[in-house]
Design brief:
- The complex is a heterodimer.
- Chain A has no helices and twelve strands.
- By secondary structure, chain A is mostly beta strands.
- In chain A, strands 3, 4, 5, 8, 11 and 12 form a six-stranded antiparallel β-sheet that branches. Chain A has a four-stranded antiparallel β-sheet with strand order 1-2-7-6, with no helix packed on it. Chain A has a two-stranded antiparallel ribbon with strand order 9-10.
- In chain A, a hairpin with a 5-residue loop joins strand 9 (101-102) and strand 10.
- Chain B has strands at 9-12, 18-23, 35-40, 47-50, 64-69, 72-77, 86-94, 98-101, 105-109.
- In chain B, strands 1, 3, 4, 7, 8 and 9 form a six-stranded mixed β-sheet that branches.
- Classes of the chains: A mainly beta, B mainly beta.
- Chain A binds chain B through residues 36, 38, 45-48, 51, 59-63, 95, 99, 106-113, 115-118, and chain B through 1, 3, 32, 34, 36, 38, 45-48, 51-52, 57, 89, 91, 93, 96-104.
Amino acid sequence: QVHLQESGPGLLKPSETLSLTCTVSGLSISSGYHWGWIRQPPGKGLEWIGSIHYSENTCYNPSLESRITISVDTSRNQFSLQLRSVTAADTAIYFCARIPHTGGPVITLYHLDYWGQGTPVTVPS
Amino acid sequence: QSALTQPASVSGSPGQSITISCTGTSSDVGNYNLVSWYQQHPDKAPKLMIYEVNKRPSGVSNRFSGAKSGNTASLTISGLQTEDEADYYCCSYATGSTLVFGTGTKVTVL
């Protein structure tokens, strides 16, 4: 059974860099999926942040691309999110998820079939 | 990249059927059969209910079904049950190797 678990600091100050890690168990992160990050501000909807393949090919939300880096560590079966220059607007529950996809010249992302439980991140205003 | 449009709320009585719409554009819903639907109970992670427009993952009740016409996808819940009360989000692949979520719909069982 595939299991994903997010970890990272829950409280940051404005302008700091958010660093989160998702640890995958039950499946090798090199098994050929994309691995993604999604967030949900309090009382609001879901927002796709971006995703990565073990080959380090990435797909990013254009609205966040200038501030994010997603990386993968196959030796630890983990992938990570860095979000720079955080503000109160980045306060949210952050989820990681597995994403089936097809590769080639254009990466096609399909859906999010396994999710972590989510981790809260707060940036005071 | 704008969020897909869903009604804020839909309600129905136990046993009834309800349908949630999800409207996008020709850059997402209208151009790809890659619409998925997620159920989210309070303080829980989203759960995949429908993928590739109308396919159900193993373990998901056949009371849940999906469809698409043009730029609008839909999720139908038949035989509404109390445990179906939750938030529902659509999601679509979009041009440029991205994913876009819907605005979300709160389903209330009366």
